[in-house]
Amino acid sequence: MRVLLVEDDPSVAAGILDGLAAGFTVTHVSNGRDAVAAISTAETENPVDIVLLDLGLPDMDGTDVCREIRGSSQVPIIVVSARGDEIDRVLSLEMGADDYMVKPFGMRELVARIRAVTRRTASSAEQENSSEAVREVHGLIVDTRTQRVELGGQEIHLTPKEFELVVYLSADPGAVYKRQDILHDVWQTNWYGTSKTLDAHIAAIRKKFGSASWIESVRGVGFRFGGPA
User: Fold this and answer.
1) I want to staple 29 with a disulfide (CB 3.0 to 4.6 A). Which of 34, 145, 147, 227 is the partner?
2) What is the pLDDT of residues 130-187, one digit of tens each?
3) pTM higher than 0.70 for the full model?
4) Averaged pLDDT score across all residues of the chain
5) What's the rounded Cα separation, in Å, for the pair 187 and 180?
6) Whose CA is closest to 167, among 128, 200, 131, 193?
7) What is the 3-state secondary structure (H, E, C) of the chain?
8) Using an 8 Å Cβ cutoff, are 25 and 47 in contact?
9) To 10 degrees, what angle do helices 196-209 and 86-94 make?
10) Distance between CA atoms of 167 and 181, rounded to whole angstroms?
């Protein structure tokens, strides 16, 4: 598995490189610009399977790096940061991160998170080959083969996790999905984070779709996929 590690602290980078030496091929860069350039090059030469991204980089904030990478690639991203505040977690997830770990952390947990995220990505790829490649719900077109979503003839750019959520919720429009079921089925049982990440992703999807009515909150239960206001 090919990993891009974006970390400016030499001692932290060395620990992660040692911890991932068995079973992973790790490329290390120490700033945001090199990270974005590495992903751009990897898209055509040596594809990266996952990015481990620190937020406190010397040239640009990690959330900006995350956003720039998402502009050109769907590669899974795990943020590894000393920032433990909820706002940092939520902002990173809104910018396209798939998971978030707070330093210090154990290498076994990091490896488990890497495998969980890449497993979910593989599941999405398998879904592209399913018989229901294209789904239309209230004028919203969801193409699981190309991982594209269109609304009113315009493509809506979603992060990989946002796309998974839309596919999951739109499978049965009008049905109520419980929070714990969404976290279990979309994030799977290896998700260690707070359920706040679900709210952050739902909010981001609503904003991109232009209306909260597309994903309605059911108080005390969860969410249902609706339609245009």
Assistant:
1) 34
2) 546 788 999 999 998 888 999 988 999 998 889 989 999 998 889 999 988 888 888 7
3) no
4) 87
5) 10
6) 128
7) CEEEEECCCHHHHHHHHHHCCCCCEEEEECCHHHHHHHHHHHCCCCCCCEEEECCECCCCEHHHHHHHHHCCCCCCEEEEECCCCHHHHHHHHHCCCCEEEECCCCHHHHHHHHHHHHHHHHHHHHHHCCCCCEEEECCEEEECCCCEEEECCEEECCCHHHHHHHHHHHCCCCCEEEHHHHHHHHHCCCCCCCCHHHHHHHHHHHHHHCCHHHEEEECCCEEEECCCC
8) no
9) 40
10) 14
Quote the tokens at residue 135.
């789904």
9: tokens are: 């602290």
Amino acid occupying residue 117: V
Residue with structure tokens 């000393």?
82
Which residue type occupies 195? S
